[in-house]
Amino acid sequence: MTHQHIDGQLFADMVRGGTARLRANAQAVDDMNVFPIPDGDTGDNMSMTLEAGVSALGADAPCDIGTCSAKLAGGMLLGARGNSGVILSQLFAGMADGFKNKAEADVACLAEAFRHGVKKAYHAVLTPTEGTILTVAREAAEYAAGKVTEASTVESFLSDYRREVQASLERTPTLLKVLEEAGVLDSGGAGYAFVLEGMDKVLHGEKVEEVGVPAPAAKTIDTSSFTADTQLEFGYCTEFLLQLQNSKVDVAAFEVETISDFLQTVGDSVVAFKTPEGVIKVHVHTMTPGKVLEYCQQFGEFLTLKIENMMLQHNESVFAEKKDKQPASRKNIGIVAVATGEGVKETFLQLGADQIIHGGQTMNPSAEDFVAAFDLVNADSIIVLPNNGNVILAAQQAARLYDKAAVYVLESKTLGEGYAALSMFDPDAGSIDAILGDLKEAMQGVVTAMVCPAVRESHMCGVEVKPGDFIGIVGKEILCSAPTPTDAAKDLLSRLESDDKAVIITLCGKDGTSEQAEEISDFIRDRFPTLEGYAIDGKRGVYPFVFIV
Question: Does a structural domain hold residue 174?
Answer without folding.
Answer: yes
